[in-house]
Amino acid sequence: MPLFTDSRNTTINNSNFVDQSINNTIVSTSLTNGQTGIDILLEASNPNAAHDSSARDYAPRCQPGTREQYIEDIFGWGAPAIGADESLPLFWMKGPAGVGKSAIAQTCAEELRKLGRLGAAFFFAVNVRDDADDAERFFPTIAYQLSTEFPDYRDLLDQRIRHDRTILKKTMAMQFKTLIAEPFQELEKTGKGIGRRLVIIVDGLDECKRADDQSRIIRIVAAAARDGVTPFRWAFFSRPEPHIEATFTSYDIALVTFTVLLPVSDNANSDIELYLRSGFEDILRRRNIPVKPQWPSDNDIQALVRAAKGLFMYAATVLRDVDQAGSPSEVLRAVCAATSNPTNGSLFAGLDAFYMLIMQRIPPERLPTILLLCRLLCSGESYPGSGTYSGVMQWSNLLRLSEIDFRAACNQLSAVLYAREHSDFFDFSQLGDTDRSFWHAAPAFVEAQAGTAHVVGRLGGSIHFYHKSFYDFLIDPTRSGPFCIRSSPMHNAYFKHCLEVIFEYEESYRFQGSGEL
Question: Pfam families per the record (predicted)?
Fold first, then answer.
């Protein structure tokens, strides 16, 4: 605006004037509600699936000196030396449950990140799921992680999503094309390509909800790899489930895939021994306990190694159980005694004996409730409105337990049950009374803020099994015996309990003007 607009008959002498007017031009790339395209992409992704998310604070990792050959193989494939022959674009590490695939994947992701060779990582795992349809979030999550690394790619994504928000609701093939393949092709054509091959790690593909989606992800990635449309190598880690095996061994995909078997083998015994010794040293260090003579003894260590039968999951669960015990030495003695003479010679004999010990330690008066909890956790995906969430509020309400009683029940399974707090939701400690059920303690909050399955599933925190092997144990009567959650007595108890809950909730409903129901 000009100075002294519309002034008349004005005289000013010996003065200095400074024009401090500001001419701002604002270019907005946001939507009318303040969201950018990248904001929308973040909402459609699963941040918990990243290798460095808080949900993976306690994820298994390889101890220094263990699994070295497998890690070297992956680095030789994914980050080859200059001048080395171009490697195949897909890598598949297959192996049975508990052999340490996720630990290798986590370690490789962290080390590749340090070298600047990690593009993205997605860990399918029961304890980091954040949506009922995890496959729908897979490619958006990969795209979001890549967008944090490459500004030019981020700008392209932002424009595409602002132009068409429905991209994030399209088929997985279309998501891959529009969010990943086409943007990187466009950058390459304009001379803004990333200039190097990066690795994308996908762990636990067999834990994606639907088998069809597991195979579909492989086929989409393999087709792009075959045609060379993206600058990425993809590393998959999974159990060799029949449909996954069939997909990777199909002729066109096998041609572009480097396959490695991670077997159950006595060759892993030295690595498991090193893992156990390091883990027990950490337990003592956290307690500031210098123990002499050595604890555990060499005999105990060797007994645990033999019981593990090549399964790192056994060693990891034992360490977790001992670490959480009030008397570590007493728990260790019980574990060694229970697993030294397993009742069968199967691969999982030692692990099953340990899981049986965990269940047998539960006080008889608490066992029915804890078995119901296990039953609910194993069938949670079929519970109306629950998706794959395992919220403390949900399960405590279904079990008709107060918060304090529910958490006490969970503590009985602390070696196999992962409890996670969600700080971004309501703090129930504000309610003061932990002896009352969540449902009756905070009805106004539940009604006002918990109208969606996503929110309800996280109220009070969430719980999941640490590893799918415990689920496998619980559903197999030949392994879990009286603790099998698919036995006839358990089905009857579960059905009876559900009816009681339904009738109890039904009696709590009143309709104005309806009279007696």
Answer: NPHP3_N
